[in-house]
Amino acid sequence: MDTQKPTVGVLDASTYVGFWILKGLLSRGYTVHAAIQNNGEPEIVKKIRDMETEEERLVLFSVDVLDYHSILVALKGCCALFASFDSSDNYDEKMVDLEVRGAINVVEACAQTDGLEKIVFTSSLTAAIWRENISSQKDVDERCWSNQEFCKKMKLWYALAKTLSEQAAWALAVDRMLNMVSINAGLVLGPAVALQNPRSTISYLKGAAQMYENGVLAFVDVNFLVDVHIRAFEDHSTSGRYLCFNKIVNTEEAALKLAESLSPLISLPPRYECQGTEVYAERLRNKKLNKLVESMAY
User: Which residues are catalytic?
Assistant: First the structure.
């Protein structure tokens, strides 16, 4: 017989990715402390509250990531935390600061929680790809970080928030000797993503033309992303960062399909047809993720 699976936390469970991680954990038999913020996506929050009435392994907590003690309460009894932040508001300079402060509070709370063994931190490909002359770099992998000054100059606030919050989380995790991995996700696609995750999707796509032309525009299916998160927790050998994507968008046909999947967030001219045949060089590398995915099959 299978032994009972431990209790884990998801914060913020009311984000699009957080919600799907929550569902994935419950389906695998975990007990989940779902921490949601007051400004969470309303439709997702309602779904979680409805789930709570039917799922005995789901416990809800209201948290504010700027309120350290509310995080401690939600984490009590958890052996791991899946930390997934996204703003329900538009990203700007102020939101960058809030996301960084939230990440620091969450990691510090993990350090002060007895029995918490691992943090799986959701980050973004945008924390790795942005710099002057992207085309001069042949390979973009886990060792790469977006340049802060370039992000500020181009007002890439989403990318800057993901870069600075992940760096702050790593610095504190190392200092507190915490076991942490980060999953740097491409543009997340999945059921109702245009309706339930509109602001983060649009924020991610700022500079999409440059990403596309430089071979670093990529997307990931939310179910695959969830599998990677859970595997990163369950596999004791995981460490560091993982660039997580299913496909690099580097042809006009692929870009058209991506735009269609994000309707009505992105609108195309009526009866638009592909005009070009150019294929842009792929620069993203995810060999490290591929090894993890291969181990998932066994």
Answer: 162
